[in-house]
Amino acid sequence: MNIYEYIVEKIDGDYAHLRRTDEREGDLKLVARAILPPDIMEGVRLKYELFEYTMQ
After folding, report:
1. How confident is the model at residue 2 (pLDDT cuts 50, 70, 90)?
2. pTM across the whole model
3. What does DSSP say about strands 4-12 and 29-32: parallel, antiparallel, or unpaired?
4. Where are the chain's structural domains?
5. Which CATH class is domain 4-55?
């Protein structure tokens, strides 16, 4: 299973826009905030591993 790192670029209501740290030119990933850690803010780094997001 792959491990990815993301940066929260924007929070928009119930969703967050995430950018992979290894893909500067890629599209943003839209993720429901319900599956993210409750205390995220814009600029926070997240790790995605085993279908779970955790703060760095």
Report:
1. very high
2. 0.90
3. unpaired
4. 4-55
5. mainly beta
